[in-house]
Protein 1
Amino acid sequence: MSDDNETMIYRTSDLYFSAYLCAVDISMTTTENDKNENGMKKIVFVFRVPKKDFDRLKAQFFGGSGTVKVQKYVQSLKNLKSLCFV
C-alpha cells in the first residue's frame, strides 16, 4: 500500500529548478559539493520531495506550465545563489 506522505531525496545542480522547488515550498535539506566533468566545483541542492508530487512538479516546470509568485521565485533564486558562494 502506498503512503501519501512518502518522500524521496532529490539531488540537482539546476539552480532554476531548485529555485522553483523552493518557491513551491519543497524543503531543501542540504547542499553538497561536487565537481563537474571539467573538475570545476559545483553545488548540488538536496531536496526532500513528496513522491506523489515530484513528477507533476518536474513536468510543470520543464513544460512551462508551473506557476509561482514571482517575488518568491526571485528570492529563492537569490538565496540559492548565495549558498553557492559560502
Note: Residues 7-84 form one domain.
Protein 2
Amino acid sequence: MRSIAGDATSWAQTRKLDVNARDSCKRTALHWATEFGHEEAVRQLLDTEQVDVYSQDRAGDTPRDLAEFVRAGTLALLKVGTSLRKNALDPR
C-alpha cells in the first residue's frame, strides 16, 4: 500500500505541477511539510530534484529553518537534500 504523500507526489509529477508553487505567505509545499514534520512528504519532494530547498517565505524562513523547530528527522532529510544540490548556492 502506498503512502498518501507518495500518491500525492506521483499525482503531481504526472500532471507536471510546480512543486515550488507558493501560497499567500510565499510558502511552498516543502515549507509546510517540514513545519508539520511530514518526513515522507519531505522525502518525496526532495526526490523530485526540482524543489527549491533555499526558497524563503514572507518571513525569510527556508524549509530548513522551519525544520529546526520540528523533529530531528525532518532536519536531517533537509540537510541531505541541500547537500545534494551542489550547483545551488546557500545564501547563508
Note: The mean pLDDT is 75.
